[in-house]
Write a sequence for this structure.
């Protein structure tokens, strides 16, 4: 009798252990599933940020046509965000190194710190090592479409974004039209004049180069 | 140990996949039922054949009814045997469920470990891409009579206590340009941390003074390395301080030689970049080398 009671107690204990182990196993399984889901979200986020950092826009391309008599003759073409060609200019400038000046405006940044999520890039002017920036050729007219910079067309902007773009572009245009520098007037904005370095990396005649704008405000020149 | 575990896992996954296929997919179930029917049919056929031989040997007739009877008896016997082995079948089913569970859990653990590895890799990549290095700090001391007076500071990160190397400039104009040679490396090199984008500021000019008439900048250390790229061992990740400086020297040699800079396609772009801003008295700004590419200007308040 006593042995039977002890046997029953032993069975109950084993059953208890089994239920506990099963509960842990099921709980662990569900937690693992949840952890995997969270992992997938984190991986997708990190991949998204990485892609965003590497993304680029190309508002203009240029080609040096000749270098004669202390002048550089080049053709500059403008493109919208979908890659559609908008217009082009062809001109000669005195000097030996060509400078393509871009204006960078911060957007969606933290107003308190002036830091930016990303930058809008506007082609500003062309000058050379011998021609001062103030005497360079302004480029705004080449892509102005009723106050909107057409280089940013090709994707849909919200009315608020469109207003911000127009306002930044208009401020830059006004400053430039009155012969004043436009970089730095809007908080966080600056200019970036990318150029060849004659002793190191010259633009070869007949080769097309693109001006690449990065989301964090960096501007690069790359062979097209 | 890992090899043994891998072999056990491989066997476990084969059993688990086979069981999952046979018991949890329509095709598997069809195959399983077909095999059972074929086995039962073979067994019945054998029983009926044996019975027919025995009956014929006894000189009796073995008609259709007798065959059906023999088949029914064999079927009943088979069902009886199956019922008797139900606990064994239940045990096998339980074992298979257990194997499936263990295999699935093991796969989840493997996925989790792989996911963690991927997150670590992506985080490192992102950290490398998001990193920026301070190139020059500019303080506008005065803007008067169409002239900009500014102090440029270049930092020696190897010796943080040392006062930054400074250079005072005075130039005609309203807008200050800091010109640098920029070398952006291939994204894979940046992401892995084996290279960092470089910028070597070499000249300051203005909107009114062209680059050719600008002011030379001097911010190299005695061995010809730019001060901003000197790092103390605490600030160099995954590489010894000495190896870092040796690598940096090689890169500087690359950047100075067009041909070698383009070797092996490690350089994405090599060009000049003159970042600029309107000079306002008392204001300061910093020129940064972005590892995602190019140079930027930030207000000190942004950090």
């Amino acid at each position: 009798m006593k042995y039977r009671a002890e046997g029953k107690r032993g069975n109950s204990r084993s059953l208890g252990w089994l239920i506990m182990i099963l509960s842990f196993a099921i709980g662990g399984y569900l937690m693992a599933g949840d952890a995997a889901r969270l992992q997938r979200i984190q991986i997708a986020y990190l991949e998204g940020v990485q892609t965003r950092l590497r993304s680029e826009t190309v508002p203009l391309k240029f080609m040096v046509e000749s270098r004669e008599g202390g002048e550089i003759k080049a053709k500059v073409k403008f493109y919208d965000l979908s890659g559609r060609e908008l217009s082009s200019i062809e001109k000669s400038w005195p000097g030996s190194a060509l400078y393509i000046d871009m204006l960078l405006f911060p957007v969606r940044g933290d107003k308190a710190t002036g830091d930016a999520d990303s930058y809008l890039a506007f082609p500003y002017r062309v000058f050379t090592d011998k021609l001062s920036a103030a005497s360079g050729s302004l480029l705004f007219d080449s892509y102005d479409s009723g106050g909107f910079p057409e280089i940013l067309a090709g994707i849909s902007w919200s009315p608020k974004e469109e207003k911000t773009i127009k306002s930044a572009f208009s401020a830059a245009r006004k400053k430039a039209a009155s012969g004043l520098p436009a970089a730095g007037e809007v908080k966080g904005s600056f200019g970036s004049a990318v150029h060849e370095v004659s002793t190191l990396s010259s633009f070869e005649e007949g080769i097309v180069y693109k001006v690449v704008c990065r989301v964090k405000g960096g501007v690069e020149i790359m062979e097209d | 140990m890992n090899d043994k575990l891998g072999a056990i896992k491989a066997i476990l996954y084969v059993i688990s996949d086979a069981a999952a296929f046979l018991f949890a997919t329509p095709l598997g179930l069809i195959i399983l039922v077909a095999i059972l029917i074929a086995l039962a049919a073979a067994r019945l056929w054998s029983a009926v054949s044996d019975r027919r031989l025995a009956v014929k040997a006894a000189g009796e007739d073995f008609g259709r009814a007798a065959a059906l009877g023999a088949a029914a008896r064999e079927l009943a016997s088979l069902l009886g045997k199956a019922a008797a082995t139900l606990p064994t079948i239940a045990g096998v089913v339980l074992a298979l469920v257990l194997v499936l569970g263990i295999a699935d859990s093991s796969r989840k653990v493997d996925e989790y470990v792989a996911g963690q590895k991927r997150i670590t890799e992506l985080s490192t990549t992102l950290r490398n891409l998001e990193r920026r290095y301070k190139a020059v700090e500019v303080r506008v001391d005065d803007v008067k009579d169409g002239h900009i007076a500014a102090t440029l500071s270049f930092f020696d990160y190897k010796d943080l206590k040392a006062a930054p190397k400074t250079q005072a400039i005075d130039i005609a104009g309203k807008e200050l340009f800091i010109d640098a040679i920029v070398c952006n490396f291939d994204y894979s090199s940046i992401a892995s941390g084996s290279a960092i984008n470089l910028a070597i500021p070499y000249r300051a000019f203005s909107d009114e003074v062209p680059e050719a008439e600008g002011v030379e900048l001097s911010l190299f250390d005695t061995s010809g390395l730019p001060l901003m790229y000197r790092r103390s061992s605490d600030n160099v990740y995954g590489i010894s301080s000495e190896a870092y400086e040796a690598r940096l020297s090689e890169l500087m040699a690359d950047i100075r030689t067009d041909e070698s800079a383009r070797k092996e396609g490690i350089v994405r772009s090599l060009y000049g970049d003159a970042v600029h801003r309107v000079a306002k008295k008392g204001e300061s700004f910093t020129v940064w080398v972005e590892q995602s590419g190019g140079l930027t200007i930030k207000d000190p308040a942004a950090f």
The first helix of chain B runs from residue 2 to 24. DSSP finds seven helices and nine strands in chain B. Chain B has two domains: 2-127, 132-302. Strands of chain B lie at 132-144, 147-154, 165-172, 175-185, 198-206, 215-216, 267-278, 284-290, 295-298.
